[in-house]
Amino acid sequence: MTEAAPTGDIAEPEESASVAAAPTVSLPPRRQHPAYIIISAVRSLRALAFPLLILLLGGGRDGNSVILGFGAAAALIGVASRALAWWQFRYEVSNGELRVHSGVLARQDRFVPLERIQALDTGETPLQRLFGVVGVRIETAAGGAAASDVRLDAITGAEADLLRASLAVAPTGSPAAGDAARASTATVDGSDRGELIRTLSRRELLVAGATSGRIGPALAVVSFGFQLIDDIVPERLWERVAMQAPGLTFRGIIAAALVFGLAAWLLAVGSTLLTYSGFEVRRGGDRLFVSYGLLDRRRSTIPLNRVQAVTIFEGMLRQPFGLASIRVESAGYGRDAAGSGMLFPLLRRADVADLLAQTVPAFASAAALDRDALSPLPRRALSRYVLGGVWGVLGLTAVALAIAALVPSVNWRWGLAPLIFLPFAALLGLLRFRDTGWAIDDAARLIARGRIVARTTTIAPRRRLQRREVVRGPLQRRARLATFRFAVAAGGRGGQTEIEHLDEAAAFALLEQLGPTVRHRTSPRPGPAASPGAAPDLSSLNQA
Amino acid sequence: MVSRLPPSEHLDPRARTLWRLSALFQTVPMAISILAGVALLVWLDRLPLPLAVVIAVAVLAFATLIVWTVPDLLWRRWRYDIGENEVDLQHGWLTVTRTLIPMTRVQHVDTRRGPLQRRFGLASVVLFTAAGASEIPALADAVADAARDRIAALANVQEDL
Questions:
Q1: Does the beta-carbon distance from A505 to B1 stay under 8 Å?
Q2: HSE of A451 in the Cβ direction (CA atoms, 13 Å)?
Q3: Which is higher by pLDDT, A175 or A103?
Q4: For residue A497, what are the CA distances in angstroms to A358, A459, A473, A485?
């Protein structure tokens, strides 16, 4: 690989809002580590390995050699094409831009201005660790659908530090910009990564695993495991087991469900332990540094001025113990795994305010944790929340009944089984109704609390709102209810939040109060285009 | 409450014809295949004729509703305003959605003309923010261009996301 020392060129000063511009280090064009070929080939072949495995296990003996031959050919082509891609891929930092040249047949050149770069994340999978390289993802501020981030799958740690140093743009707005710039390069390029704010203790990690509720994906894995066993175990053995089995009894089903549930739960615990082991949050200047993971060590850098919203989650298993987790929605985050925006995976509810004040002070809202500060839903929304779940269960029952009636060997009464969930659905509806609420606090931040399963509180400053919506369905209109929706600039689910079934007048009031303050007092049209009541008390807080 | 009054501007009246045409293109093949299936079943003596007639009438009525009535209802509901501070949109027939987008959040704005739109001399204005795109469909060419320029001028360039 082309190892080059940092040249330390001083590029032209950046045009930015700060007084003094930061000197940027330029980086001559370079390739990734050759391990890229192996790593990316393994990644792209992994998708193929799964169906291949199923074919091998499921297909007859005679078909196997064909399948294996096909697999080997695919692997060979894969490696060759990745090698070409590695050769053609170059990146550099010059003229205040990150430039990435790639593409085998169609050449692609991407120029990303440094001030558009949101964050630089590094991480290492076991495979990357084997080769002594790290993966780097550079988040850019391009909103919308296009894959906007730049990914490097294999560069050495030293290269990553070099890149981080060259990309470090001076934090804007601070009076001593020169010092701040030097300080921030110092914090991003090496071992000292800001002041340690909080770590996850081993006990907390275990509790986080036990209460993670990540049972859904775990269930899928477990059921696949059972299926695999079913395919591998010789049929004769199954038959013997089946002869001795007491048949489809109620007790048998309960026992199977318990075993199944326990396996899924253990898997959920394990995956949480792997993901969040060694979690720590540091803060250096106006950046947060979050690192976690046992095998797959992730480190992410979040510039504070890019944080769009903060969400507090209180899962069903955690809420009774007063536990919560916190995520930050940062522009450019959220398209990836659920952990990518995690600020802290488990802490006491009582500690949330403290942590927010230390990490993201702009989002430390007292109202977010105060039940009485939130406006509740009108009473007539209750039936809608309860009935919503009830209708869902009844629909499921209808489908189950139809299936049970059509399958001859099954008693049709089994189709009524989903009705067991009816009281739970109604109870969840009641909880959702009780937990939903909103407020606009004294710093013009919108606090929206609600529940799908976990209780979720979103804190979004008014000036971060990209879009606000009031949606009214036909039934809602009859009951004078509405759904208020808002979106911040974050890629994934965190980007959009809604408050369902609030009073129509309240929804329109939110729509209005959260608007930008009027820049010119003259309204173009006669009529109350700018409401004088709402504007003055908020105007001082508008974007500077 | 100011915001509860719908925005004032309508889409171009030709939007109705445009939407009816495109609904026609989507509905006719579907209706024909359903009717053909029903005819086949009758021919095979699998479906009593009266029931077939009822189904055929229902399909035709539904198709008429989608092609003729719904575009008109949609057009009546679709309103927009390009204010100095915000873009204000309202649309939807059964579910009514009111959307407000602050000018300062608009990153860029396009006009788009599909092949069918071009025949009618219509264009859509598409607004992009960091949280996705919103569209004002079916404005007259000149109106769309003016709207695009006005939004671009009011939004100008953002230094902060």
A1: yes
A2: 22
A3: A103
A4: 25, 10, 17, 6
List the one residue out of A365, A475, A381, A356 whose CA is nearest residue A436: A381
Q: Which residues of B touch A508 (CB under 8 A)?
A: 1, 3-4
Kindly write down the DSSP assignment for every residue of A268-318, as one continuous string. HHHHHHHHHTT-EEEEETTEEEEEE-SSSEEEEEEEGGGEEEEEEEE-TTT
CB atoms near residue A388 (< 10 Å):
17
Q: What is the pLDDT of residue A64?
A: 67
Confidence of residue A41 (pLDDT cuts 50, 70, 90): confident
Neighbours of A535 (CB within 10 A): 16
pLDDT band at A240 (very low <50, low <70, confident <90, very high): low
Residues 57-76 in B contacting A (C-alpha not used; CB under 8 Å) = none
The mean pLDDT of chain A is 77
The answer to whether residues A437 and A376 touch, using CB atoms and an 8 Å cutoff, is: yes
For residue range B26-38, what is the model confidence (pLDDT) as tens digits?
Answer: 999 999 999 999 9
DSSP 8-class letter at A473: -
Chain B interface includes A516 (CB < 8 A): yes
Half-sphere exposure of B88 (CA within 13 A, CB side): 22
Q: Does residue A422 carry a pLDDT above 90?
A: yes
pTM of the model: 0.71
B95 in reach of chain A (CB within 8 A) = yes
What tokens does A398 get?
């209808």
Of A331, A472, A487, the CB nearest to B96: A472
- Quick one: pLDDT band at residue A515, thresholds 50, 70, 90? confident
More confident residue, A46 or A29: A29
Looking up tokens 């660790």, which residue turns up? A129
Q: Which residues of A touch B128 (CB under 8 A)?
A: 143-144
Q: CB–CB of A473 and B95 under 8 A?
A: yes
CA pair distance B97, A170, nearest whole angstrom: 42
* Residue in A139, A110, A164 with CA at minimum distance from that of residue A490: A139
Which helix (H) or strand (E) element contains residue A261? helix A250-276
The band of A13, judged by pLDDT with boundaries at 50, 70 and 90, is very low
Rounded average pLDDT over B79-83: 93
From first CA to last CA, the distance across chain A in angstroms is: 46
